[in-house]
Amino acid sequence: MLRETGDLPTETDVLILGAGIAGHCAALAAAEAGARVLLLEKSSQPGGSSAIAGGAFAFCGTDEQKAAGISDSIEDFRNALLKTGKNKNNREMLELFLSRQEGAYRFLRSQGIGFELLPSPPPEMARVHLTGTGRAVTQLHMKVQAHPGIDFFSKSAGARLIRNPETGRVDACIVMFGDRETEIRARRGIVLATGGFSRSAELLGVFAPELEFGVKHGGVANTGDGLIMACDLGAGQADLGYVAGSFGGAIRNYPGATAKADEIPPLIFAFQDAAIMVNKYGKRFVDEAQSYKALSSIGMAQPDGVAFQVFDETMMAASLGDTSVNNYHEALLGGYIKKAETIRELAGAMQIDPDVLENTVSTYNDGAAAGTDEQFGRTRGLRPIDNPPYYVAATANAITSTYGGVAVDGQLAVVDWFGVPIDGLYAAGEVAGGFHGAGYYSASSLSSSATFGLEAGRNAAKGSGH
User: What is the CATH number of the domain that holds 113?
Assistant: First the structure.
């Protein structure tokens, strides 16, 4: 049953701010450890960015991998995370994740969450376990609602953390519950699981000014509340210099429409398969078969920061369903993709010179048919775009997540600039920086958020200091 009626409790054992996957895992873990838990969500619905992400989890040593005959190891996983993070990863967090990730996977399965591998995945995608967009956090929320030790309230935003003047411990939080200000005391600990700041133009202007006007895709309440509250107490920071966009945020009804403040546009990464990308002048500018993070700065450097993904019916037939990523059919219906019978018509729909675009596609097709890309050396997904009808998506840098935030130690305790734990305060999920380092390993966000959420919840429930 929903326990959102009545007054907000003013005392609890463990207070958790933010009801994405990290917050839900923290709540369930703390409750199972015997703590009374209060889980609060700023927006009207639980889930945050976890509810709109693609639903992919990076795990190693799973039953699905074994059934598929996939050989994997923790050492290979470690090397992959370090390579993507350019060795800037917080080693304590990295080793904690590697030692606990299989347990997190099994916990999620025990909660009724099913995983599927990609069919015949390439080696770099062999750890990707799919659940479908929002399914995992929806299932966890049902478990939270049914748990007698957890109270959940939405429309409840943390505003300020309070240290006990006698002990120095963070043991209370000022919360805005509707239009009322309430102080909630946490007897054992407080967990920040408030997400990132992809929806805060102010914080993007401070930490990633080049992304301030990018396509906003993260949870609608992700305005950096946890980061602000923790920094107000002297929390250190981690990875904020590596905040990057993901190139592929779709622009609806280009060139006429403007995005609404709470719009959640689809992510189109067709270029990673067989689409090409052109700028507003109709010309290719890169080997498209790269990660959306690697293309972030390259795409942003194009005129107006916009690039157009061009593909054909063969690519459209590969549309995914039940996800916010590469769901081409849904994007077409939503006005994020346009369709035409010829390349010239496609160009006209996006106000691109039709002669130039026709020449660009023709040149690319000739090379692809011969197995070469003399312009940019593309090898992966190199096949002609010649099966009408044709499609085009105007895309830009999307700020899906910020993956940088407060510094934490190997217990998920928030630490100050000197590495000293701030007693009583923990963080997990996107608000906690350090794990990803200088890059982002695909599908590691949900898996690390679940893993660290469970650990933070257990540690907060102990309530015995750090």
Answer: 3.50.50.60
